[in-house]
């Protein structure tokens, strides 16, 4: 009889598996942060079992009207000093499917970008699909990457840390007014 071998756990390097796991945990952390925010604001919601481009369905207080939300979650990089003189900032990056943004005028999906941070409060940027399309198209004329699903826009978001609070896309388009703009959903709260 041969000698029994003890199974060793598979070593995980800095390859694709770790990155995918980190992305999934960031995505879920952002979704749970949004769930908490929605509940504290008095909204009811449901989470689809299968992701068909909608992560959350938010209902009005009578459960008669609803809005579909796509959540984009991201963690910050380390704090940096701005080249443009705006002060210290945290940089975040999101990726959005081009076909969803390019067809935004026909979409009834809202986008919530969750800027996660381990050192301060999460920030929620709330957009209609058309508003996000407009902001992206001001800085990106065409998609910047491709994945298994198709062309994507990769977007950098800068959260400036000095007062007054400011958030910009690609350090060019200010979107500070989208912070906690849940009223854009147009739903009555419970």
Note down, in words, how this protein is organized.
The protein is an alpha+beta fold and 190 residues long. The chain has one domain (16-184): Trna Endonuclease, Chain: A, domain 1 (3-Layer(aba) Sandwich), CATH 3.40.1350.10. The chain has three helices and eleven strands, in the order αβββββαββαββββ. Strands 4, 5, 8, 9, 10 and 11 form a six-stranded antiparallel β-sheet that branches. Strands 1-2-3-6-7 form a five-stranded mixed β-sheet. The chain is globular.
Strand content: 25-35%
Number of domains: 1
Helical fraction equals: 10-25%
Report the CATH architecture: 3-Layer(aba) Sandwich
Integer-rounded radius of gyration: 19 Å
CATH class: Alpha Beta
Topology pattern, helix = H, strand = E = HEEEEEHEEHEEEE
In DSSP terms (H or I, runs of 4 or more residues), the helix count works out at 3
Residue ranges: pLDDT <50 for 5 or more in a row? 5-16
